[in-house]
Amino acid sequence: MRHFGICPGSCGEFIQGILEDSEYLVSYAVNIYSKAQIEERKNNIRKGPYKARKALQEVFKYFNLDVEDTKNISLIVNSDIPIGKGMASSTADIGATIKATLSFLGKELDSHEISKIAAKVEPTDSIFMENNCIFNPLKGEVLKKLGYIDGIRILVLEPDEKLNTQSIRRENNYFLKKQFNKEKIKEAFEMLEEGFKKNDLKLVGKASTISSLLNENIHKKDGLKDIIKITEEFGAYGVNIAHSGTVIGIILDKEMNYKKLEEKLILKKLNKKYKRMYSLDVIRGGVK
């Protein structure tokens, strides 16, 4: 019998930085997905992606089951999430696999427990949570719930460039640079929280833009200041980035004509770097 799981991707984070001496982020889910399928087989066993396979084993460990029992489980993962861009491709693979494994075992776990299992595989983000929250990616724990604002659309600017999230974190001065931004990022987190309380996308966008600019000392995004200027003139709410990836997201609502904004970006030749421009809808997170 086949068992399935599905998990959305993201387009980076609204905000990411140091709070209370730990790293926290607020990511958001978008309508692109990873889908996992598992079944017990005697032959032609597919191992699936390495991290997804490890997630399957971590679920067995969580329930004190013998990991050896996973050797006859075939895992297939299909995804339409770009890889190496900061769009949660591996996180979504992991989440979808955890859900499929839970189905296989006839078990259920809430999003908090699923996040903690995912964090054992690699630093994760908050796309497993239905609503937006301030989230510890290393522990898979929620610091504070923020809520959800309906009707957000993202214009994604995706370059060819790829980036390994783990390699960014392994740099010797990664956390020193994060610490340098600590006071300003704290203000941005407070602004973001206020934006969610008031259902105010302008505040959410402003906080995101601040975080995007602060991250320039960790991974510089080509043309970011030009993109921010164009989006401000257009009337968009703000710009967010993948803090350890390469994509940029422009925060809009569904009433805004993203095609006109795309034209303005192309006029400034920003499509030479960001060769793919397309819109995605922000959705509630969670695995299914």
| Low-confidence regions | none
Question: Main beta sheet: strand number and arrangement?
Answer: 7 strands, antiparallel
Helix fraction?
A: 25-40%
CATH class: Alpha Beta
SS summary, helix count = 9
Look at the structure and give the mean pLDDT: 95
The number of distinct structural domains comes to 1
Radius of gyration: 19 Å
What is the percentage of strand-forming residues?
25-35%
Give the overall shape: globular
SSE series: EEHEHHEEEHHHHHEEHE
Our measurement of the CA-to-CA distance between the termini, rounded to an integer number of angstroms, reads 18 Å
- Tell me what the CATH architecture is: 2-Layer Sandwich
Number of strands: 9
Counting copies of identical and different chains, the oligomeric state is single chain
Protein name: Threonine kinase
Pfam families: GHMP_kinases_C, GHMP_kinases_N
Domain GHMP kinase N-terminal: 54-122
GO molecular function, one term: kinase activity
Secondary structure layout plus pairing:
Blueprint: E1 3-19, E2 22-40, H1 50-62, E3 73-79, H2 89-105, H3 111-121, E4 132-136, E5 141-147, E6 152-158, H4 165-170, H5 174-180, H6 182-198, H7 201-214, H8 224-234, E7 238-241, E8 248-253, H9 258-267, E9 276-283
Antiparallel strand pairs: 1-2, 2-3, 2-9, 4-5, 6-8, 6-9, 7-8
